[in-house]
Write a structure and sequence with these properties.
The chain is of the alpha+beta class and 153 residues long. The protein is built from four helices and six strands. It is elongated, with a radius of gyration of 18 Å.
Length: 153
Amino acid sequence: MTNAYQPRGMYFEEFTEGTEVVTQGRTITEADIVNFAGVSGDYNTIHTDAEYAKTTPFGERISHGLLGLSVATGLAMQLGFVDGTVIAFTGLEWKFKGAIKIGDTIHVVAKVKQAKAMRAAGGGFVVFDARVVNQRGESVQQGRWTLLVKSKS
């Protein structure tokens, strides 16, 4: 008996404009920031030096913007709505609107903006308007994600 993987994600034809997904939250920790600095090589003092960060407008260390974006895409993928059906993450337009601080809990709200068939690519492009929202309801990052998603046939 073989147990072949069966995608649980939605296929291109199942995405309709206006469909919205909301992720669970995730708290950003000091360990996340330290680990991201190590992985990325970005040791900017606003992220890694508590004493220096006290002198900035934020008054404390903040997360790397790209850490917030990375966590956001991970939270979205955990929902499973493109698990096994996404072909590629093909585009990103992104704004960093506010700081994510140690202890902030973020989640993602993503809404289908557009779906465009690309039969030659085996599916179609799905464009999401996405927002990263903190525990205070503030949108700290936002923009558009474009995914190439498999077709059913």
